[in-house]
Design a protein that fits this description.
about 425 residues, FAD/NAD(P)-binding domain, alpha/beta, 4-stranded parallel beta sheet, binds flavin-adenine dinucleotide, globular, single chain, 6-stranded mixed beta sheet, 12 helices
Length: about 425
């Protein structure tokens, strides 16, 4: 009989991977890492896949290669469909497994706030497949416009819904691609005339940042040719059409590509397993990142509702997931050794978002930065946290190349059937 405690980690994202790295150092446990994909994904750079700057392999790293040196870690590519907390069992597609401790780090998915019908007409940005779909549609819109220049005004119109970091970054990046990078590549159209509209329901972009940074971001995006619509609520989305409502009146906007960056919710596993969940379907956890009645079940990262000092759930950012992953691993080891455990404390190291070339906003330890310094900081932090040395080097080379050549090298249309 194997006496080593069995720890199952569901999800090889930011939280799950940190937990596994820490747990693997303890030879008295065996770990099973389960993910429905075969890779760890660096989501903060997904928008650069969508806008043809990077290639998928730059930010998606095979989970097996990340764990090949960890002999007490078994990786399974499968989807966990349910959890029986009482018998300490998880259900996969075709089998069941027992655990002593469970870490759920399953992250989030795009949420349409109950309007699932909008999914048909807009694209979310949560994984590689979403990013490739956006890239395909974006690149095809340029090709179509070159073929039918008389329709270029209609074809080169992009609507982004949601003024958080993802919406801001993708709007800035599409503006850069169409207005500066590819404008010399076409003969029949002027891609600098592409229209990019960013819609935000609240009164500010980047609403969780210092207000000065929000105002700065809006100004800089507008300078780059993005039309920013604040206080504008999306009432409906249909084929290539967005219906909006604002204090200035209702509008019907048309766009060749509609990107939905307005919301996320936890993946359905929490709710399907009978956990106590909040409005965003995150599992409500206690100060130890575990379920109240099941202290051996930890839920971390985007899948968890952990209340911060202000009583609000911690934000869905990679720093929270990583810190909680390391914490859950350390807590499990302490429990196995019969030691006392401490509550989780989140250390907020700051926020940042890039607006485009040589421009970003950042707030770190109460200090705000804008412009080129914030941009360099953003580049450094994103390279530093990127997993895998080869990927760091590949991204750095691509960025330097793109910076000097004004190029977007990953302009491959993968599904020409979309034309
Ligand atoms: C476009 C975008 C930009 C972002 N930019 C930033 C940023 O600049 N800075 C920042 O800090 N954060 C950013 N984030 C947020 C950050 O990526 C998340 O907070 C972080 O990934 C959460 O980590 P996690 O471990 O909780 O989940 P994830 O990293 O999402 O990992 C979840 C994993 O679980 C797997 N999974 C899900 N369900 C199952 C199941 N049932 N069975 C098996 N496997 C399953 C998934 O395949 C996935 O690999 C961004 C997110 C997006 C989408």
């Amino acid at each position: 009989m194997n006496e080593k405690k069995h720890i199952i980690v569901i999800g090889a994202g930011f939280g799950g991977l940190q937990a596994v790295q820490k747990l693997s150092k303890n030879k008295d446990v065996r770990i099973t890492l389960i993910d429905r994909t075969n890779h760890h994904l660096f989501q903060p750079l997904l928008y650069q896949i969508a806008t043809a700057v990077l290639s998928p392999a730059d930010i998606g790293i095979p989970t097996r290669s990340l764990t090949d040196q960890m002999k007490n870690v078994t990786v399974l590519m499968d989807e966990v469909t349910g959890i029986d907390k009482d018998s300490k069992k998880i259900y996969l597609h075709e089998k069941e497994m027992f655990y002593d401790y469970l870490i759920i780090a399953t992250g989030a998915k795009t949420s349409y706030f109950g309007h699932t019908e909008w999914k048909k007409y807009s694209l979310g940005l949560k994984n590689i497949f979403d990013a490739l779909r956006i890239r395909n549609k974006l690149l095809i819109s340029f090709e179509k416009a070159e073929n039918h220049p008389e329709r270029s005004e209609e074809l080169l119109k992009y609507i982004i819904i949601g003024g958080g970091p993802t919406g801001v970054e993708i709007a800035g990046s599409i503006a850069e691609l169409s207005h500066s990078i590819i404008n010399n590549d076409f003969r029949n159209i002027d891609t600098r005339k592409a229209k990019i509209i960013l819609i935000e329901g609240g009164s500010d972009l980047l609403s969780t940042f210092d207000r000065r940074l929000s105002v700065y971001t809006k100004k800089r995006l507008e300078k780059r040719g993005v039309e920013v619509m604040l206080n504008t609520r999306v009432m409906n989305i249909e084929d290539k059409t967005v219906f909006t409502k604002s204090p200035f009146g209702d509008k019907i906007l048309s766009g060749e590509l509609i990107i939905w960056a307005a919301g996320v919710e936890a993946v359905p596993l929490n709710a399907n397993s009978g956990f106590n969940v909040d409005r965003q379907k995150r599992a409500v956890v206690n100060e130890f990142c575990s379920l109240n009645e099941y202290p051996d079940v930890f839920v971390i990262g985007d899948a968890a509702d952990f209340k911060g000092k202000d009583g609000k759930p911690l934000p869905g950012v990679s720093a929270v997931a990583m810190q909680q992953g390391r914490y859950a691993a350390a807590t499990i080891i302490r429990k196995i050794k019969g030691k006392s455990i401490e509550p989780f404390r989140y250390i907020n190291k700051g926020n940042m978002a890039t607006i485009g070339r040589k421009d970003a906003v950042a707030e770190i330890s109460g200090f705000s930065f804008t412009g080129i310094f914030a941009w360099l900081l953003w580049l450094f932090v994103h390279l530093f946290y990127q997993v895998g040395f080869k990927n760091k080097v590949s991204i750095l080379i691509t960025w330097i190349w793109s910076y000097y050549t004004f190029g977007a090298s990953a302009r491959l249309i993968q599904n020409p059937d979309d034309i």
